[in-house]
Structures are given as structure tokens and as C-alpha cells.
Design a protein that fits this description.
mainly alpha; rod-shaped; membrane; transmembrane; transmembrane helix
């Protein structure tokens, strides 16, 4: 499971940034 997670890209981080930008806008 750890390997699978490591392979997956940091999508959560990207979503958080997008949400933050939208809120700031």
C-alpha cells in the first residue's frame, strides 16, 4: 500500500492549492 501511495502524485496538494486560490480570489 505504501508503494502505491508513493507512486501516486501529490494530487491532494494540488487540490488544496486550487481551493485556497479560489477562496482568496
Amino acid at each position: 500500500m505504501a508503494k502505491s501511495r508513493r507512486l501516486q502524485p501529490p494530487y491532494s496538494l494540488l487540490i488544496v492549492v486550487m481551493l485556497f486560490m479560489g477562496l482568496l480570489r
